[in-house]
Specification:
This protein is of the alpha+beta class. The protein has five helices and eleven strands. It has helices at about 95, 105-110, 115-130, 135-145, 150-165; strands at about 10, 15, 20-25, 25, 30, 35-45, 50, 65, 70-75, 80-85, 90-95. The longest helix is centred in the C-terminal third of the chain and has 16 residues, at about 115-130.
Length: about 170
């Protein structure tokens, strides 16, 4: 298997599994064709897939898993916090895979809104974004005139600002 390392991807197609059709805009997850997204994790299962944040709620959102074939790889700068976990066949932040840090698992603790997992999520996202900070302005420009990104602005903009300031 060829190892695909990604950081920034551009949405080329949005497949709706319920209607079995491709869309230009996904009203559920607020993915938009030709917009750029940070990759949070890469999964090497039957199909290669990416975990990305949606535009709907920025850091407050549940991330989603999308098929890699529907995205174009823009950059392949590997965040310093990623490791290849051969057991689970994924590339993701080391802390998310360290079961000793969590009550159940990282994602279960995160979805239960446990403060430690929420804080870790933000810290790890910040490291991921920092690996490709040159694309922050592109992502901001794409979303500048769209009202649907009001919650994204409240969570992602401060994080982007911290990365750009080097905090």
């Amino acid at each position: 298997m060829e190892l695909i390392l990604v950081m920034i991807v551009k949405c080329k197609a949005i497949y709706n599994e319920y209607t079995d059709k491709y869309l230009d805009f996904d009203p559920v997850n607020n993915l938009i064709v030709d917009f750029h997204y940070n990759v949070l994790e890469v999964f090497f299962h039957r199909n290669i897939s990416f975990r990305i944040n949606t535009d709907r709620n920025g850091l407050a959102s549940c991330s989603i898993i999308v098929l890699a074939k529907d995205f174009e790889i823009i950059t392949s700068n590997i965040p310093q916090n990623w490791i290849l976990d051969k057991k689970f066949a994924d590339l993701s932040p080391q802390k998310w895979n360290d079961i000793s840090l969590w009550e159940e698992s990282f994602w279960q603790d995160f979805f239960e809104d446990l403060p430690k997992a929420l804080s870790c999520y933000r810290d790890e996202i910040k490291t991921i974004v920092a690996a490709d900070k040159d694309y922050i302005q592109t992502m901001l420009d794409e979303r500048a005139d769209r009202d649907i990104f009001y919650t994204w602005r409240g969570t992602m903009l401060p994080l982007f600002a911290e990365v750009l300031e080097g905090e």
